[in-house]
Amino acid sequence: MRITYRQMPPTSVFYARATGAYACSCAAAWHHLDAWLDRYCARGRARRAFGIFHDNPRTTPPELLRYDACVPLAACAELEPNEGIGRQTLPTGTWAVYTHIGPHREAGDFISTLHGDLIPKRGLSVDYDRPILAVYLNDPRVTREAHRRTELCIPVIPIPALVASNDGTTTDTLDVTALARRLASCASSLP
């Protein structure tokens, strides 16, 4: 699996929340948000969308799991939220990002692998103070399941790593977050 690291800025969004097992709550939240967007003919304005997985299904009872379906506020800024639609700001920070291509229903397995296996093997710790995000890059109403692209974003906290010097000593530390920020800025400047 190819994992990249990214600093994400805070993003204001409209959202609809549903609770329950993620297999059901994701669909319910999107149904509510899509109906609201369709009412204002605004669905096509959102080029990307977000899903927020607030709770860990291994430690939270299924009926208490919270999922938010979100669209950027900038795409629909003139709209007013109504019953069940709110505004919030997505958290900022460093994220380990895996781009999944395929059906959205497969995301849970990939999130489990990233969260429980790959992130710790890379010397990072999951930041449990922030939720897991999914960034939906295609509109599922017009994109076939096999071609849907979703960025699965696991919040990570930097772990200072010892850096060896030329004489074999380990005196300095490397800030993984700063390194991720530098790599992201270099990558964004490429053609």
In short:
The protein has 191 residues and is of the alpha+beta class. The chain contains three helices and eleven strands; from the N terminus they run ββαββββαβββββα. The radius of gyration is 18 Å and the shape is globular.
Structure description:
The chain has 2 domains: 4-157, Multidrug-efflux Transporter 1 Regulator Bmrr, Chain A, CATH 3.20.80.10; 159-191, no CATH class. Helices cover 24% and strands 35% of the residues. By secondary structure, the chain is an alpha+beta fold. Strands 1, 2, 3, 4, 5, 6, 7, 8 and 9 form a 9-stranded antiparallel beta sheet that branches. The radius of gyration is 18 Å and the shape is globular. The chain starts with a strand and ends with a helix. It has 3 helices and 11 strands. The mean pLDDT is 80.
| Secondary-structure arrangement, i.e. CATH architecture of the largest domain | Alpha-Beta Barrel
Helical proportion, percent range = 10-25%
CATH superfamily of the largest domain: Regulatory factor, effector binding domain
Would you give the CATH topology of the largest domain? Answer: Multidrug-efflux Transporter 1 Regulator Bmrr, Chain A
Principal-axis shape: globular
Quaternary form: single chain
Number of domains: 2
Which CATH class of the largest domain applies here? Alpha Beta
> What's the end-to-end separation, in Å?
24 Å
Question: Radius of gyration, rounded?
Answer: 18 Å
Question: If helices are DSSP runs of H or I spanning 4 or more residues, what is the number of helices?
Answer: 3
The low-pLDDT segments are: none
Element-by-element helix/strand order:
EEHEEEEHEEEEEH
The total of beta strands comes to 11
Helix/strand-derived category reads alpha+beta
Main beta sheet: strand number and arrangement?
Answer: 9 strands, antiparallel
Summarize model confidence as the mean pLDDT.
Answer: 80
